[in-house]
Amino acid sequence: MEAQSLCIIETETIRGALERLNRTAKKILFTVDGLHRLTAALTDGDVRRYLLSGGSLEDAVSAAGNHRPITARSREEALRLLAERGCVAVPVLDGAGGVLDIVLADTHSPETYPALGLPVVIMAGGKGTRLEPYTKILPKPLIPVGDLPIMEHIMRQFRRYGCTEFHSIVNYKKQLIKAYFSENEEQYDTFWYDEDKPLGTGGGLSLLKGHVRRTFFLTNCDVLILADYEKLLRFHRETGSAVTMVCAEKHVTIPYGVVETGENGVITAMREKPAFQFLTNTGMYLVEPEVLDDIGENEVIGFPDIIERGRQKGRRVSAYTVREEDWLDMGQLDELEKMRERLYGRS
Predict the structure, then answer these.
(1) Are 251 and 179 in the same domain?
(2) What's the predicted TM-score (pTM) here?
């Protein structure tokens, strides 16, 4: 297994690491702790710099390594990072930081994506109050994550699947959004729909009537889903759904002991740091065009309410589940750095 051959325990000596580096053609090792969790990356250059600074060959290898290496949570992400960042190798980690695999630049070709060719509708009209004060200056779709604004990350992900027709509903600071994409070298094929007043997460879809006549992706402008879109579309069609909601598995542990009481304060149950698992709406959907008929002109309504309206009419609504780590949510300030690390690595 490539991951095992390129990993070294962090307590090994630098002398031992040099011997390993001389034996491998990759010229890189990854240091791990006793539980096989990644702690650093080590190259010939790292060792030379450490020794020149006064370090010893008998020191622990952990002293010389780069403790913020670029990592990935999936093979797909690792391949993308190899192509974008010019890395030699990218380790794939599990949720606890353990090394699952190491993807190498010279032995893996970039992954190909099936051409789905569906239109994409992006809800980009909100004020982004959870991201203030940033959104006092920039509209939420243009908040940068690394080198690109979140909306462009979303569009690039869809373009991998041959989805090049974008319909964007805008309101707040809409001229800034339009100006950015009008001068963008990528030249995205985008149709703009102006909300004269805020219509909620669903009301603006009424503007699409007569413009979108086939199955379409619908996404909020602050989420990026890194799952397999072809499998999502296949599920949507096989279930005959009018709407398929992409849901993420969410795991939450209450960091306190939870107490349940009955009459007169009598304790009836106690649970120490209980854990809960549930599905949450990510804000991305596959939608059939007839759903647009359920929306009144200039009606202020959320898309979940439109879904419920369709369910009452007998339309099928399904949930497609993705892993929690495949859902990148930029809607809150503390998630911005997490999203950047997933897209660009930790360097």
Answers:
(1) yes
(2) 0.66
